[in-house]
User: What shape does this take?
Amino acid sequence: MSHMENNREFFELKYTAARARAARRIEEAALGQVVGVNGYTTVVDAQRLCEHLDLEAGATLLDVGTGQGWPGSYIAEATGCRLVAADVPWEALLEAKLRRETGVVKACGESLPFRGDSFDAIVHADVLC
Ligand SMILES: C[S@@+](CC[C@H](N)C(=O)[O-])C[C@H]1O[C@@H](n2cnc3c(N)ncnc32)[C@H](O)[C@@H]1O
Assistant: This one.
């Protein structure tokens, strides 16, 4: 099995499993809110990304390896930009879509189906493509 197939299988299982209440409580205690985080990017990190990217409302952001929409959904909420969230497991993307109005794309970071000038900014947090 290739590295990518291993990776996909691991995350599909992870996102299919019901999130334990304890995990949500830990997330809330650590981050101050439940945002569907699956990595080490904190709310403070996401705020720094907002400041760094300085996106205008209506700009378009791509979050690659978004999982359940983190941190793209936070940045979109804070700046008013439009979010396109890309990842491989559908289960995670559907969660991201439920969280807010988000375009979701099931795609591997190695072969994204976009032209190079499609986005004003691209983020990826805790993703090894
Ligand atoms: C540790 S999680 C981080 C998820 C989210 N960015 C976060 O911080 O909560 C890594 C994510 O990267 C995705 N991923 C890994 N390799 C990828 C690839 N080649 N293309 C797209 N997504 C990938 C996984 O499916 C998983 O959702």
Residues 19 and 36 are 10 Å apart (CA to CA). The longest strand covers residues 82-87.
